[in-house]
Amino acid sequence: MASLIRLEKVSKCYHSGEAAEVYPLREVDLEIYHGERIVLLGKSGSGKSTFLNLVGGVDIPSSGRVFFEDLNITSLSAGELAQYRRKEVGFVFQAFNLFPTLTVGENLMLPLDLLGISDERKARATLDAVGLEGQWTKFPEQLSGGEQQRVAIARALVKEPRLILADEPTGNLDVETGNLILALIDEACRERSATLIMVTHSSEALWLADRKFRLRSGKLVKEAGGPTFNFSTS
Amino acid sequence: MSIATLLKFNLRYYRRHSLLSLLCLMGISLGVGVVVAVELINDSALASLAQSVDLLAGKATHSIVSGYGRIEDRLFAEVWKNRSIQSASPIIEAMAVTLETGDEPLQFIGIDPFLDAEFRKLTPRDWTTAQLTEFVAGEIPSAYLSQELIRKYHLGIGATLTVLTAGIEKKVRILDGIPPRTEKGLGENMAIMDISAAQEVFGRQGYLDRIDIISGANVHDLVRSLPESLKLTDANSRKSALNAMLYSFQLNLAAMSLLALFVGIFLIYNFSMFSVLSRREDMSLLLILGSDRRGLVGAFLAESLLFGAAGSLIGILFGFLVAWLSIDKVSSTISELYFYVKAQEVHLTIRVALSGLGIGFLATLLGTGLPAFEVAVTPPVLGMKRQSIEDRAHNLKGLLLAAGFVCFAAALTAAWASRFSIFWGFASAFGMTLAFALFTPSILSPFTHYGGMGLKRIFGSLEGFLAARTIRASLSRTSIAVAALAVALSMTMAVDMMIYSFRNSVTQWLEGSLQGDLYISPATTKWDHPLPESLIAALNVDPNVEAVERYATYDIFLDGKPVKLRVVDGSVLEQHSRFHFLKGGKGAWDALKAGGVFISESLSYRFGKDVGQSAQLTTPEGQSSFPIVSVIRDYSSDQGTFHIDRAVYERIWKDHRVQSAALFLKPGASVDAVRRSIVAQFSGLDRTIASNTRMKEDILTIFDKTFATTATLKGVSLLVALLGVATALMAILLERAREMTVLGYLGLTPTEMGKMNVFQALIMGLAAFCISVVCGLILTYILIYAINYRSFGWSVDVHVNPWVFVKTLLLTGAACLASAFYPTYKLTRTAVVGAMHEE
Predict the structure, then answer these.
(1) Looking at residue B837, what is its pLDDT?
(2) Taking 80 as the threshold, does the pLDDT of residue B182 lie above it?
(3) Percent of chain B's residues with pLDDT above 90
(4) Rounded average pLDDT over B443-454
(5) B3: pLDDT confidence band, cut at 50, 70 and 90?
(6) CA-CA distance, B477 to B278, in Å (whole number)?
(7) How far is CA B546 from CA B53, B504, B540, B568, B608, in A?
(8) Pairwise CA distance, residues B762 & B742, whole Å
(9) Cβ neighbours of residue B711 under 8 Å, at least 6 residues apart?
(10) Beta strand B71-72 with B518-520: parallel, antiparallel or unpaired?
(11) Does A207 touch chain B (CB under 8 A)?
């Protein structure tokens, strides 16, 4: 099976203080396949978000290469990376990151507007799909935390990206709401055959993973729990 | 937690936001600097004036001056005989340019060296008989010149100076330099002559300008014993009279500088509020941890004092520099419009420094105090929520709108009250700008809401839509920046429109009152240089000349205040001019020729005189009453002018001098040919003979120069306001970093983010422009009817110039783009993840 994402000897180094160098990722190799759901575990500061940023084209590695299918995204310019994110990647954040000044509908339309698509019907349908019918004209602050995260998921899904990157999507929610959100993400990715990479530091989300990895000292270590797909990691 | 600890905590903030801090510091410095500069310039001009009056007064206790501008020679003997007077010295004072020193005028003082020795040391004590003989009875008139002048123009002792009086060349030999100790403080452009030589050179034979005296007796006795046409004055009252002449000019300068400060306060408030509110969460956290509110507010106030002190100190230095650089220009404007003054030095006095510091502190305290207090009284839990700041700003809109309407009503009331004091005129202008500043949030909110939707739907601009929404989302900040810009723009437009209207009114007045084909020596009316009688005689018989209008203007007193008396040929002007009669136009010329006077509207306004009343003027025969027959529009002097018919004047004042002449040529006569023929007969007149067009151009050039300083101050206000926009954009960048990052995650390219930032600046600029169009038009009327008229007594017809709007719009656009440059550059250079890390 062809991979959607391929990391080749990817390292990321940050300079901390005068001389100290911190490696959240060190020579990571990984292939992620179409429609696969990956859960990435790790302690705070272990490099989970760095991993997502590199795959999402938000950050560039210090060394190594990241491919989206055959496209080497590490060689893209800032503008090309923005285009890549715009078309192919949907982000879901822990803090929802909805625009407080835009209505729910305007938040949802934003990714479509960026693509030059003025398909309000599609956006409304996506909102309905996350169970928020009738909330189109409300502002984010008028919704509960769980509802805001649903809007954020709808915003990530509305442009039908092939890759969904979720960074601690349940971190700001109670357990019950968090589980509902995870189920929603799982269902949405299955329906759209989207590839999901979810970063978390809790074990609540492990049930939806095809593969689980843990980041330790910059290295990606596979966790037990049976693969559904073939994969290779070193 | 102690205030010192909290202060340290706060000061670190400034280090982290160094550029923003620098912009704000510049705002304080510019605002304070302009006020300080104007104060220093005004002080310096007045100090130089006072010093020269004092030094020239020497030991004189008083001066005797004439109520109609000159003292007949014969009266000196009468004064000299007065027992109350110990010593007396006759004086001639004249201004003139010379070929050797160019356009810079020289001040000539004519003295009697023997009588004057008791008063001052203007001539050497140890002079030789030959020197003395040459000074008082030389073949050609001679003068002692200031050493500085000799050095500056490389003039040689014994060389000849060519003095121009009414364009005619008069030779004056340079005897030597004025004794250095005397010269100090007198100014560099001084020349001392013997009184009879001065009378001859400046055409004042038989007249004195004043008599300085040393009086040992009771002043009241002295006043009683003087002839009715003479009055007693002293150095202080001369200074007061000169100061009074400058009052309007200085008031306008001060008002423009206050405008810059007013705009500066917005900027300071904007930054201070941002700096306090961006630490709102920290403050709320500190309150939750147990810090007391008083300590927190105290720390912010201490911080603002430090910041205000730094900004004010820089501002004072900046103001000093501006004053030092522009003192020459302002001096020459005063000299051009009022009287000769040569201010060379600027001294930073403790009073000016303290007022600069005080203004800076006050503005910064106001800017910091209000938001710090707001945070301190907000429950800490609410303070932790970022959105609550903006919610409050949106909720406050209604209250601010109501306050705006109160200010609007107060400003209109103040405009009405300006008839009682000019103070209310300025209060009205500032009240009106404040009203529109308070309206700004209520205007900006729907403007950006619908503007954003329009940009997206009509132009398909997502960046524009997001920019408009971001402005609306940061209303607490953006409305202040927009208000500051709107205030500066509306004042700019109003001042431009006022100047345009003023210029148009002056042009119309010139068209009506100056219809001569040629003008001879118009500039000398300012300096009282009479034209040769032979020239007037020649003009009267020139076959190409249909009529000659003979002008003269003299400084006289009305109710103890200086005014102008303009002598005109009523019968000539009746035929050849179109005076703008504001009152009493019917039969005005006949009434003038019959012994009445026209008064300018400024005189009418200042002295409460009107048609039907009479004016008491001092004549050689004593006080005479002249019926006021008309009020005319006349922009030649803000002190006020009487127009009197020459025949009446000559009969009463026994004075036939003419200072300038207007020639009305016969149909078909060539202006150039007549000009050439006059110059051929009277060499030197080519310098001062001007065509109608040139004459008007020269007057308008002086007009434009008068407003040059205003334009500079206006520019500074605009610069301060633009710093406000730049600060607001930077603040948005810092505050909205998280949203910018999310936009980056969603796929907005750095260029698109930059575009969004540029849109923000342009939308803010456009909003400010729209507000300022309305505010500026209202301010134009306030400036013209409540300030200009009350300051100068001149009415001006309002002329709306569409180009002013276009120019301001273009300027705003360009300036907003400039202010957006750095924030945009920064934004396009910041990686998405970088912003996330900063956040």
Answers:
(1) 37
(2) no
(3) 17
(4) 91
(5) low
(6) 11
(7) 45, 30, 9, 17, 39
(8) 23
(9) none
(10) unpaired
(11) no
Residue B565: predicted pLDDT: 92
Write out the E strands in B112-235: 142-145, 160-165, 168-177, 190-194, 207-208, 210-215, 230-233
A96 to chain B, closest Cα gap in Å: 10
Q: B352 falls in which pLDDT band (50, 70, 90)?
A: confident
Q: Residues A15-73: pLDDT tens digits?
A: 765 556 777 888 889 999 998 999 998 887 788 888 998 999 888 888 999 999 989 99
Q: Is A99 on the interface with B (CB under 8 A)?
A: yes
**Cα distance between residue B437 and residue B479, in whole Å:** 8
Q: Do A101 and B833 touch (CB under 8 A)?
A: no
DSSP B390-428: HHHHHHHHHHHHHHHHHHHHHHHHHHHHTTT-HHHHHHH
Neighbouring residues of A15: CB distance < 8 A, sequence distance ≥ 6? A21, A22
Which of A99-108, B41-50, B471-480, B565-574 has the highest mean predicted lDDT (pLDDT)? B565-574
Chain A, nearest residue to B474 by Cα? A101
Cβ distance A78 to B831 less than 8 Å, yes or no, reads: yes
Give, as one character, the DSSP assignment of residue B530: P
Residues pairing with B162 in the sheet? B171
Q: Contact, B190 vs B145, CB < 8 A? A: yes
AA identity, residue B716:
V
Which residue matches tokens 């004075």? B655
Single-letter code of the amino acid located at B141: P
Q: Are A154 and A108 in contact (CB under 8 A)?
A: yes
CB pair distance less than 8 Å for B831 and A59: yes
Q: Cα separations (Å) of B714 from B258, B312, B367, B708? A: 11, 20, 23, 10
For residue B834, is pLDDT > 60? no
The 3-state DSSP class for residue B819 equals: helix
A18 touches chain B (CB under 8 A): no
Q: How many angstroms from the chain centroid is the CA of residue B164? A: 30
Torsion angle, CA of B653/B657/B661/B664, rounded to 10 degrees? Answer: 70
Count of CB atoms within 10 A of residue B71's CB? 25
Cβ separation of B750 and A100 shorter than 8 Å?
no
Distance CA B698, CA A10 (A): 78
Q: What is the pLDDT of residues A134-170, one digit of tens each?
A: 899 998 888 988 899 889 999 998 988 999 999 888 8
The interaxial angle of helices B802-829 and B750-781, nearest 10 deg, is 150
B647 part of contact set with chain A, CB < 8 Å = no
| Residue in A183, A60, A85, A184 with CA at minimum distance from that of residue A128 | A184
Residue B268 has pLDDT above 70, yes or no: no
* Kind and range of the H or E run holding A4: strand A3-15
In the numeric block, which tokens belong to residue B834? 């970088």
Other CB atoms within 10 A of residue B603 CB? 28
**Do A101 and B746 lie within an 8 Å CB cutoff?**
no
- If one compares B835 and B558, the residue with the highest pLDDT of the two is B558
State how far the alpha carbon of B87 is from the alpha carbons of B54, B65, B194, B218, B237, in Å.
18, 16, 18, 15, 20
Q: DSSP of B820-833, one letter per residue?
A: HHHHHHHHHHS-HH
Least trusted range by pLDDT, from A91-105, B289-303, B812-826: B289-303
> pLDDT of A165-190, one tens digit each?
998 888 877 888 888 888 888 888 88
Whether residue A91 and residue B746 make contact (CB cut-off 8 A), yes or no, is yes
Residue with tokens 């810090």, as numbered in its chain: B291
Bigger pLDDT: B45 or B40? B40
Cα B154 to Cα B58: distance, rounded to the nearest angstrom: 29
User: Using CB atoms and an 8 Å cut-off, which of residues 732-761 of chain B contact chain A?
Assistant: 738-739, 742, 744-752
Residue B388 binned pLDDT confidence (cut-offs 50, 70, 90): low
